[in-house]
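Before relying on records like the one below, remember that each one covers exactly one chain. Contacts with other chains, cofactors or solvent are not represented anywhere in the record.
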Amino acid sequence: QVQLVESGGGLVQAGGSLRLSCAASGRTLTMGWFRQAPGKEREFVAAISWTGTTTNYADSVKGRFTISRDNAKNTVYLQMNSLRPEDTAVYSCAASLSYRTANREAWKYDTWGQGTQVTVSS
Protein backbone atom coordinates (compact mmCIF):
# COMPACT_ATOMS: atom_id res chain seq x y z
CA GLN A 1 0.00 0.00 0.00
CA VAL A 2 1.42 3.37 -1.05
CA GLN A 3 1.60 5.93 1.72
CA LEU A 4 1.50 9.70 1.27
CA VAL A 5 3.04 12.35 3.50
CA GLU A 6 2.27 16.05 2.99
CA SER A 7 4.36 18.98 4.15
CA GLY A 8 4.59 22.71 3.64
CA GLY A 9 1.42 24.00 5.23
CA GLY A 10 1.36 26.96 7.58
CA LEU A 11 0.12 30.45 8.27
CA VAL A 12 0.47 33.14 5.64
CA GLN A 13 -0.98 36.58 5.02
CA ALA A 14 -3.39 37.21 2.19
CA GLY A 15 -1.52 37.68 -1.05
CA GLY A 16 1.30 35.44 0.08
CA SER A 17 2.53 32.08 -1.20
CA LEU A 18 3.04 28.57 0.06
CA ARG A 19 4.33 25.40 -1.54
CA LEU A 20 2.91 22.07 -0.48
CA SER A 21 4.73 18.79 -1.07
CA CYS A 22 3.42 15.25 -1.02
CA ALA A 23 5.88 12.36 -0.96
CA ALA A 24 4.68 8.91 -1.96
CA SER A 25 6.29 5.72 -0.71
CA GLY A 26 5.92 4.11 -4.13
CA ARG A 27 4.93 4.64 -7.71
CA THR A 28 1.59 6.32 -8.37
CA LEU A 29 -0.48 7.30 -11.40
CA THR A 30 -2.76 10.35 -11.15
CA MET A 31 -2.05 12.61 -8.17
CA GLY A 32 -4.41 15.21 -6.80
CA TRP A 33 -4.92 17.79 -4.10
CA PHE A 34 -8.18 18.28 -2.24
CA ARG A 35 -9.10 20.60 0.61
CA GLN A 36 -11.66 20.79 3.36
CA ALA A 37 -12.54 23.92 5.29
CA PRO A 38 -14.32 23.78 8.67
CA GLY A 39 -18.00 23.03 8.24
CA LYS A 40 -17.64 22.44 4.52
CA GLU A 41 -17.39 19.41 2.30
CA ARG A 42 -14.12 18.29 0.82
CA GLU A 43 -13.48 19.86 -2.56
CA PHE A 44 -11.20 19.21 -5.49
CA VAL A 45 -8.28 21.61 -5.94
CA ALA A 46 -5.94 20.27 -8.62
CA ALA A 47 -4.80 17.07 -10.28
CA ILE A 48 -1.97 15.95 -12.53
CA SER A 49 -1.68 12.97 -14.83
CA TRP A 50 0.96 10.34 -14.28
CA THR A 51 3.12 11.74 -17.08
CA GLY A 52 2.74 15.27 -15.78
CA THR A 53 1.53 16.50 -19.16
CA THR A 54 -2.12 17.04 -18.19
CA THR A 55 -3.37 19.14 -15.29
CA ASN A 56 -6.80 20.04 -14.00
CA TYR A 57 -7.78 22.85 -11.63
CA ALA A 58 -10.81 23.99 -9.74
CA ASP A 59 -12.08 27.31 -11.08
CA SER A 60 -11.48 28.93 -7.69
CA VAL A 61 -7.70 28.34 -7.88
CA LYS A 62 -7.06 28.52 -11.62
CA GLY A 63 -4.32 31.03 -12.40
CA ARG A 64 -3.13 31.11 -8.78
CA PHE A 65 -2.18 27.50 -8.01
CA THR A 66 0.17 25.23 -9.96
CA ILE A 67 0.45 21.48 -9.56
CA SER A 68 3.59 19.64 -10.64
CA ARG A 69 5.31 16.34 -10.01
CA ASP A 70 8.74 14.77 -9.94
CA ASN A 71 8.35 11.07 -10.67
CA ALA A 72 11.99 10.37 -9.88
CA LYS A 73 11.21 11.46 -6.32
CA ASN A 74 7.61 10.16 -6.24
CA THR A 75 6.59 13.65 -5.16
CA VAL A 76 3.83 16.03 -6.17
CA TYR A 77 3.81 19.75 -5.42
CA LEU A 78 1.19 22.46 -5.14
CA GLN A 79 2.51 25.99 -5.55
CA MET A 80 -0.07 28.39 -4.15
CA ASN A 81 0.24 32.08 -4.98
CA SER A 82 -2.00 35.07 -4.29
CA LEU A 83 -3.55 33.25 -1.36
CA ARG A 84 -6.90 34.40 -0.04
CA PRO A 85 -8.57 33.87 3.34
CA GLU A 86 -11.08 31.57 1.63
CA ASP A 87 -8.20 29.23 0.75
CA THR A 88 -7.91 28.36 4.43
CA ALA A 89 -8.42 24.61 4.80
CA VAL A 90 -6.78 21.28 5.45
CA TYR A 91 -5.12 20.26 2.22
CA SER A 92 -4.74 16.56 1.44
CA CYS A 93 -2.99 14.87 -1.41
CA ALA A 94 -4.33 11.73 -3.01
CA ALA A 95 -2.99 9.09 -5.34
CA SER A 96 -4.70 6.89 -7.87
CA LEU A 97 -3.21 3.50 -8.62
CA SER A 98 -5.67 2.86 -11.46
CA TYR A 99 -6.35 6.11 -13.36
CA ARG A 100 -3.78 7.89 -15.50
CA THR A 101 -5.60 11.14 -16.28
CA ALA A 102 -5.97 14.23 -14.10
CA ASN A 103 -9.23 13.28 -12.43
CA ARG A 104 -11.42 15.52 -10.28
CA GLU A 105 -13.48 12.75 -8.71
CA ALA A 106 -12.39 11.80 -5.21
CA TRP A 107 -13.64 8.23 -5.62
CA LYS A 108 -10.99 7.59 -8.28
CA TYR A 109 -8.22 8.00 -5.71
CA ASP A 110 -7.05 5.03 -3.68
CA THR A 111 -4.70 6.52 -1.12
CA TRP A 112 -4.87 9.73 0.90
CA GLY A 113 -2.41 11.66 3.01
CA GLN A 114 -3.12 12.85 6.53
CA GLY A 115 -3.51 16.48 5.46
CA THR A 116 -1.69 19.71 6.19
CA GLN A 117 -3.26 22.91 7.51
CA VAL A 118 -3.12 26.07 5.43
CA THR A 119 -4.31 29.25 7.12
CA VAL A 120 -4.51 32.56 5.27
CA SER A 121 -5.00 35.64 7.39
CA SER A 122 -6.65 38.80 6.08
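The two ends are 40 Å apart (CA to CA).
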